[in-house]
Specification:
This protein has one domain: 3 Solenoid (UDP N-Acetylglucosamine Acyltransferase, domain 1). With about 190 residues, it is mainly beta. The protein is globular and about 45 Å long.
Length: about 190
Amino acid sequence: MVRSYPFRHQERQRCFLISNKKNDMIVKAVNGKSPSFGEDCFIAENATIVGEVSMGNQCSIWFNAVLRGDVHYIKMGDKVNVQDGAVVHCTYQKSTTTIGNNVSIGHNAIVHGCTIEDNVLIGMGAIVMDDCVVASNSIVAAGAVVTKGTVVEAGTIYAGMPAKKIKEVSSELSTGEIDRIANNYVKYSSWFK
C-alpha cells in the first residue's frame, strides 16, 4: 500500500512511503527539532530520519538508510538520493552536514559532519569524515575513506584509504555516472509512489 504521509508545518509538501503496517519509517523530533521535506520525496518504510534534517525536492531515502540530525543539523538540496544502508550524521555542536543538489550517496556509505557540494557521487561503502569538503562535480570512489579535513577538489575522483586524487572527471563520466545515477534514482522512486 502506498500512501501520502502528512508532516506538520509543511504546506504543499508531500512525502511518500510504503506501508506494510508492521514496519513504518521512523520520522522523529529530537529536542524540539523535526525533519522537513520538500515536494515529491520518497522515504522507504524502514528508513530513519530524526531531528533537524531538511531536504529539498525530489529526494529519496532508501531502505535502512539513517539520517540523524540529533546532535547538529543535516541540510540537503534537491534531487539527493541516500541509498540503502547509508548513514548521514554530524558531530555534536561542531560539524554539520550539508549536501548540495544532484547528489548520490551510495549503498552503505557514511557521510559524517562534512560538506558535499553539487553534482557529486559518493560511491558504495565510501566514508567521508568530519570537516571534509567534497567540491562540485566530483566522485568519491566506492570504498574510499576521505579522512578528516580533506578537501576533494572540484571535478576530480578520489579513491583509496586514505583517499587521494587519482584523476579528473571527464565530461563523459560526469554525464554517464553523476547525472545518470541521480536521474535514475528520481525514476526509481516514482515506481514506489
